[in-house]
Structure formats: structure tokens, C-alpha cells
Amino acid sequence: MWDPKKYLAFTDHRARPFFDLIARIDTDTPRRVVDLGCGPGNLTETLAERWPHAHLDAVDSAPEMVEAARGRGIDARVLDVREWVPEPDTDVVVSNAVLQWVPEHSDLLRIWLDALPHGAWFAMQVPGNFEAPSHRELRALAAEPRWRDRLDDVELRGGDAVPDPADYATILATGDVTVDVWETTYLQRLSGPDPVLEWVSGTALRPIRAVLDDTDWQRFRGELAPRLRAAYPPNQDTSTWFPFRRLFAVAHKN
């Protein structure tokens, strides 16, 4: 289950890659704009502001996120991205921090790009930090004997969750398609007690939260917290530096 409030706790840091991504979309009058994985809708609002005359589609697989987006006045709907099919007039597709949850998304990218009309833009961003200490430590804890039996069936993503930038370029650069692929590591300055734990609680730890009761969830967080503090020690001013790698790809069908 997604918690929109927990996800929005780091709004500024989560929003910056979105704006870096859509800055590379060079079109003024798209007919239809799709937010593929709209989340709570806070960033979908900016798409409506940028392209006010376009028909805006907003979809997300999490009912909690769709409800939050609707609370902002966005006509969002529940839909798994695996089931999404572009309408003939789809000129812009934005997928921000979604496809890392979809193991087969490389195949979907080929299908979607082939179905989009000429002149369309497809822009995506995914985290690329699955081998960072934040993820390695939670996987290591989940694999220890006291947790293994309860978490053995939980899929915790590793480095193979997303391809390398060059692989994305190869996937998207088919036919008459112009591709822009890059990566950025944001050195994020977090504040508050155990900020890295709070960050991953809203994303990477979701599959674990889904299978543990409240008591065990708090116990797991309590055991993970000191590991993350050691991996990301606080500064003298109590803030914490949290490096976060992200991968970007923008494809334009000429």
C-alpha cells in the first residue's frame, strides 16, 4: 500500500528529477499528455499548467495515490501501466519514477514507442541506486535468519531492476527516433531523525511493510535504523547527505 503523505515528505527532492526530465520535452501544443504513474498528482498539476490546452490523462496502479490526485482536482484513474495503450493523439508521455517497479518495462518501452504517433515525445526517469547502501542494508537485514522466513517471498529489487543508460538508449533508438539519455547523482541534504530510513520507508520498504504486522514492522525499522545511520552519518548540523543516482531517457519520434 502506498502512503501519499509519506511519499510527499520529501517533495522537493522527489520533484527535482521530474522537472529536469520534462525540461527536455520540446513541444508547445500537444494534443494529449499522459502522466504514466501520476502518484498523488502534485507533479501532474504542473503538466496541466505547462500544456493547458492538452487533454491530460493521469493513471496510477495505487488507489491511494489516485484518490490523492483526485483530491487535487485531477481526473486520475486506477490503471496498471502494463495495461496502458497510447491513444492515437498521444503526443507526450511522462513516466516519473515508476518503471523500476515493472520488471518487463524494457519490452513495454518498445511497444509503446512503436504505437505513438510521429512527433510524439516519451520521457522517463527511474532511480538507479539499487546497489547503494540504503538498499544493500535492507536486503541484508531481510536475509538474516530472524527475518528470512517471513520475508523470503518478498521481492526486494537489486541492481538488475533497471538497465544501464546505454541499454535504454539502444531500446529507444529504433527507426527514426532521436534519443537523449543521461544519468545524474543528486547529493540530497536530508533533515530530521533517521531521514534515510524515512525516505526508504515511503518507497523501497513498501513490500516489507505489506507483509509485516505493526509490531514486526517497527522492529524491522528499529534494526535497520542504526545500519543506515552508519552508512549515512549525520553532519555536525544534524543534516544528512544522501547521494541518489537517477537515470533519464527522452525519445522523440521524428
UniProtKB/TrEMBL annotation:
InterPro entries cross-referenced by the UniProt entry: SAM-dependent_MTases_sf (IPR029063), Trans_acon_MeTrfase_C (IPR023149)
Signal peptide: none
Name the UniProt record assigns to this protein: Trans-aconitate 2-methyltransferase
Native organism taxonomy: Bacteria, Bacillati, Actinomycetota, Actinomycetes, Mycobacteriales
